[in-house]
Specification:
Blueprint: H1 3-23, H2 26-49, H3 57-67, H4 75-94, H5 106-137
Helix pairs in contact: 1-2, 2-3, 2-5, 4-5
Length: 138
């Protein structure tokens, strides 16, 4: 994929995530944010290792810790990404789960998704900025 194609894809993806946030489509926003965050981390890892593999966000975080030189890793940001990953997973997976132990009302479930979506916006932007800075330092 050329740099121009990647830039267009990011521009459209970020625009769609922003629209989803404005219009209250929290699940769509979260999904796009995760995709963008994962892609940025995969992009950096490809530059470090020479290998491009699609994988889960959790695995990407492990690979960053393992394969990126320690002095280039923003440990606080990686903790934020992992915390958001857990928040996202809890929000998404609780939407349709029903059990005697899980009696969370629908609006509370949506509130958790909204919170994860707005937090994801922040994390997505931080990851993008960190990847850009780190790539220049390689």
């Amino acid at each position: 994929m050329s740099g121009k194609q990647r830039a267009e894809l990011y521009r459209n993806g970020i625009g769609r995530a922003e629209r989803a946030l404005r219009e209250g489509f929290w699940l769509e926003a979260i999904t796009l944010q995760e995709s963008l965050i994962s892609d940025r981390l995969e992009y950096l890892l490809a530059h470090v290792t020479g290998q491009h593999r699609h994988t889960t966000l959790a695995d990407l975080l492990n690979r960053i810790e393992r394969d990126v030189p320690t002095h280039l890793i923003d440990n606080d940001l990686m903790k934020e990404v992992n915390a958001w990953r857990q928040q996202r997973t809890a929000a998404l997976h609780m939407m349709m789960k029903f059990s005697s132990k899980q009696e969370t009302p629908w609006l509370e479930r949506l509130t958790r998704c909204r919170e994860a979506a707005w937090e994801g916006r922040i994390v997505m932007r931080q990851v993008d900025s960190w990847v850009r800075r780190t790539k220049r330092r390689l």
